């Protein structure tokens, strides 16, 4: 028996980014997009283009170790951006999904009072998440197949 999954295609990803960007820009004008690697890399880059923001940065957080398996708590991996580098900015934190919400919560707390304002954007939000992002494209309780992570990594040709 296979578990029903949410399938995101590259075409749907493009639509999601335009719709999410419209929702954001109608409500908020960020100075910087901070992408949570790895899942948020494509989201942050796409939102940066859609919002006309060239200041796109990355923070690397490890939480999921495999499908349905994760560490007890998310952990920032070096190098971490210095919050002072973002001081005085309105920051939009971008990720692929708020599953447990712990990763987004960790990054928001890390930025703390060092920035003018922090808001968060995701493609998907799950109902059991402890964190509710300000901008969400879709709600789901299913496991999500993202087009960039569905296939296994490529291996060297023989």
TrEMBL record:
<keyword id="KW-0808">Transferase</keyword>
<keyword id="KW-0328">Glycosyltransferase</keyword>
<feature type="domain" description="Phosphoribosyltransferase">
    <location>
        <begin position="7"/>
        <end position="150"/>
    </location>
</feature>
<protein>
    <recommendedName>
        <fullName>Phosphoribosyltransferase domain-containing protein</fullName>
    </recommendedName>
</protein>
<dbReference type="Pfam" id="PF00156">
    <property type="entry name" value="Pribosyltran"/>
</dbReference>
<dbReference type="InterPro" id="IPR000836">
    <property type="entry name" value="PRTase_dom"/>
</dbReference>
<dbReference type="GO" id="GO:0016757">
    <property type="term" value="F:glycosyltransferase activity"/>
</dbReference>
<dbReference type="InterPro" id="IPR029057">
    <property type="entry name" value="PRTase-like"/>
</dbReference>
